[in-house]
Amino acid sequence: MADVPALLADARAHLLARRADRPQPARDDKALAAWNGLAIAALADAAMQLASADPDGAARYRDAARRAAETIVGGLLASDGTLARSWKDGRATGNGVLEDHAFLAEGLLALYEATGDERWFAIARSLADRMLDHFADPAGGFFDTGDDHERLVTRPKDLQDNAIPSGNATAVAVLLRLEAWTGEGRYRAAATAALRLVVPFVVRYPTGFAQWLSAMDQALAPVIEIAIVGAPDDPATAGLVAETRRGYRPNQVVSVSPDPGASVVPLLADRVAVGGRATAYVCRSFTCRLPVGDPDALRARLHEAVGPVAGMVGPTG
After folding, report:
1. How far apart are CA 12 and CA 35, in angstroms?
2. Rounded to whole angstroms, what are the CA distances from 308 to 145, 167, 305?
3. CB atoms < 10 A from the CB of 88, how many?
4. Could you state, in order of their start, the residue ranges of all structural domains in the chain?
5. For the domain bounded by 224-306, which CATH number is listed?
6. pLDDT tens sequence across 46-77
7. Domain range 31-220, CATH architecture
8. Is the pLDDT of residue 317 over 80?
9. Of all residues in the chain, what percent carry a pLDDT higher than 70?
């Protein structure tokens, strides 16, 4: 029996050697804009949720999201705003389809919230504008291909979730979040037209339209807009930002800037640091309360705006 481990190790070595002689399966090593957008969103969200409990882990996820965004944007987004679908061996190929634009925009908006880098917000907004200009169906919703795509017998329009979320539903979620940051009604108008289109399908087949249900909640529930004025490296600013991330409050958007006057985010317009201190403004569907300057007061403002949230973590007082 003492020889059994050695015999097994020898057998495994022989099996590995024989396996190495077999033809190896092909590997799909291209990078897709859409799938990387999903990954960027997940990494950025993880970074925000772990910021207090695991700062090192949060930094690792945030850096991974940033590197992925730099690679995809640098490799697939042309100077004229057109987005390619895939990247391999240093070459971008294929026209970006709806899910590429929607998923990447969603990921970049999450990365903007996680980092405060307005470059990601600006790119996400340009992708959303391109969806409106080139993918929108006048009857509501979005085609899978742009109007500058190669001519097909018919332009496909897939509404249902599959192995990945619906590109249409994700586009709606992106537009609703952008409306909260910008106040531009055209984003909500396009989102509402798409939502009306799918109501009969959602009622009959809810499990196949889960992403749409999430978007519907986003459209119907009050939206909380939070603008924070303060230097990112100021502990007072960090304390306010941390308060916005406590618990589960999905229908909120957060912007942070030390210089709102130079910001490209309309939510930050005309905000000031009261008394020269980090200051938070809480608005509900564009109706704003008086600004506050400490986490406890911000918690109270958020409670007034939306009520207690699920999954509160950390000390409450």
Report:
1. 36
2. 42, 32, 9
3. 13
4. 31-220, 224-306
5. 3.40.30
6. 999 999 899 999 999 999 999 999 999 999 99
7. Alpha/alpha barrel (1.50)
8. no
9. 96
- Angstrom distance (rounded) from CA 273 to CA 13: 66
Q: Residue 215 — φ and ψ, nearest 5°?
A: -65, -35
pLDDT in tens, 145-177: 999 887 877 889 999 999 999 999 999 999 999
Among candidate residues 202, 287, 209, 278, the one with its CA nearest the CA of residue 244: 278
Q: What is the mean pLDDT of the chain?
A: 93
Q: Which helix (H) or strand (E) holds 133?
A: helix 118-134
Tokens 């504008």 sit on residue? 129
Measured CA to CA, the distance from residue 267 to residue 262 in angstroms comes to 12
Q: Which amino acid is at 17?
A: A
Instruction: Write down the pLDDT at residue 151.
Output: 80
Query: What pLDDT, on the 0 to 100 scale, is given for residue 313?
Result: 38
pLDDT at residue 2, as a whole number = 60
Inter-residue contact 289 to 304 (CB < 8 Å):
yes
The one-letter code for the residue type at 270 is D
Q: Is the pLDDT of residue 219 over 50?
A: yes
pTM higher than 0.85: yes
Cβ(236)–Cβ(293) below 8 Å: yes
